[in-house]
């Protein structure tokens, strides 16, 4: 959905209440790891230890990347000697080597010293080699991590997110900045756009395009290839310059939107994949969990063709404005995750009833109640990496559900969304 078509008729499913929001599906069943708090590990230039493109295969590169709050940067075991784990696998020195410059990787946990790490004076020392986790002498995003003889160097200094760089022993614990980094907004250009993004505490945003030139802000911009007409060299190159993650087609299942057949989308997908960016699935308007639905057929085709999809992008709009609205959202999110076992981004969500043709909106209090409950659930659900409210502007036809007015003041919904993820 975009600002041009909020009045379209939309099918919205009414789902049963959620019974369990926080099942950590997709992780290896290791009781000690599951009970161990996860935390980002921050190094030189304030960047994080990251699993490349959220891969889970043995041998996946571990590198330095801009901190973004995703599960690819959440490591269990931080703060005491032992393994460091992401996605249920271990930070591993390739081949168990002791040589300077040996890369580190993600590997199935095997109990060897190549996977044992000791925090000491702000460094992470591999106990098998006695050498330190190091960023290859650089601070650039995408720098692969390695082991190297320990030295008094910023490239070997690590800290829990939220603590000063080099500020002592790495420690485990809850990291508010990491969970807040889930929160984003969908927006288009309007006068207080930059200030609204900052004030609401959004860690990321998108505007359905490949460039943030119309809505520049300090938060992370995530580009999108909206539809078939945008699959060209110019737009793809712009997307590569604009971000590290790429959102796929916008509601290809609707004639009013990208309006693409599954086969056409699959034929074009290699162009998106060739950007080398992390890829979100096409975001269907509804029925992402439906066997034989648009998304189901797309993902089946992607598997058959050997194409890559790194996470599922979802849209959800609820027509039930009662106390169970947040349950309906989370039941849908859970059903999609259980079907595809991929991380989830909710790139548009809100309460708007399109079933009568003319949009019907909740009261301000109903909206606040939904935001409070839904964001708490999204924050607590490990497989939900990010979510974005539709929409930041509370102007014109979007005044009943937007977050910020033209004069820059927050609506009641805006104040509630601003508080999300900060406790």
From TrEMBL:
One biological process term in Gene Ontology: fungal-type cell wall polysaccharide metabolic process
PROSITE patterns per record: RICIN_B_LECTIN (PS50231)
Superkingdom as given in the UniProt entry: Bacteria
Protein name: RNA polymerase subunit sigma-24
Organism, as annotated: Micromonospora endophytica
